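New to this. Help decode both lines:
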Amino acid sequence: MRRVWLALPAFLGVAAITAAIAVPAYLVPQLRVVPLDLDITSVASTQGPDGSAGDRYPATIFDRCSIRQSKARTLQANLTQQRRSVVVDPSDRRQATVQSAQTVKIDRTRDAAGKETEPSVGDVGAERECSDGLLSATIDRVSLNRKTSVPNGTVSSLQLEAAPEGVDVKDVSVDLPDRKGFQYKFGFNVKKRDYLYFDSNTRQDLPAKYVGEKTIDGVQTYEFVSEVPETDLSSLPNAQGEAALGTMLTQPASWWGISGRGISPKSSITMHRYASAKRHVWVEPKTGTVINGREEQHQYFQSPDQSEDTPAPVRDFRLDALKGTFQWSDQTIANQAAKAKDYDSQLKLGNLWLPIILGVIGVLLLALWAVLFWRTRRSEGGRGDDGGYPDDPYDGPDPDQDATRRDLGPVDDAPTAYVGNRSANPWERPTEQIPRVEDPPRADGFEPLSRETTQFERPDGPDSPRR
């Protein structure tokens, strides 16, 4: 049992050092993946082009109710973009499927006459009115490689409308099989280089260029800028393979407000909805967490025919459908910064502090074992090779023996050396040292040898023959 307790510090020390080596090699890679409990909620509101939040109506939207009126109109508005991203099935240790529901709501509007309105949002499943406060809604689903955060193609779809009861969401969604860019989260260990970023409005991967660094809420971030080129949204079909609702609009020239030589007020003119954007994202490089975001959105109606055969008033016409800069709220930024700090702390714990702590504990335990082992060996070092002690009466000189030898006289001619009080051959001992013991008679009739004689004699005398 004593040996077990002595070996225990050595065992624990080796185990601690082994764990210190294994933690960065095994535990940290398990942490450096897209978490299956990922839950990101972002809220962004429109603000002025210069970043000011004092303007109550910093955005412009198309008045959908004007379709039934005599002339197209736009409204000044304040908009809020909300997005929540969570992990859904199919997800496992290799992939995480992110479902992100995004809405753009109208908080308040003001028309050309100065009339202000705060529209309400109708119930889910109810028929939408032109004055409804919900401007747009989509649900994006994408499966990501948990190690790289890159889409792996298992699930990649965009739901453009609500699915009625009994209707499969796949029937109201479009597949996006070639999707490759980041969107809700970048990969780990982000570098100062360009990456692909996916734009859901135009359904394409675009370069996100590194432009600099910035500290946000105590978190060092890299800023990336992605510019979305002008894209005809009517070319992006819905689930039925047709142009999505609101991406093509045909009205008389007078309704559009287009006039000029060769243009009749009643001439039908078809306009397509186009979109362009400039997106800024600030990413914490170690974890790939998006800390802040700003999007400069511009959607407008424009003639798809820009040839010389189209009258100039038609070619040059534009009507804003959505124009505004969406900036993440302070609360969203604070939440994302806290998540990035927490992720970073976990990585530092597994990659730095935990190995150091385990390594120090292991070294101390091995040092303790060495001290205990040395002390144990030292305490046993006073013992002889056979486990006896130096004061064993047979291991040291015997003063009685010396006195006996002096009484016997010189022993130089003795045939056998003495060891202590014992001779190597007991028959060579002096007779006076041999105790008298009466032996029982032998069965063969021989008399036992007398202990007092110093030489062999036959019972019948020295000249008797041997039997």
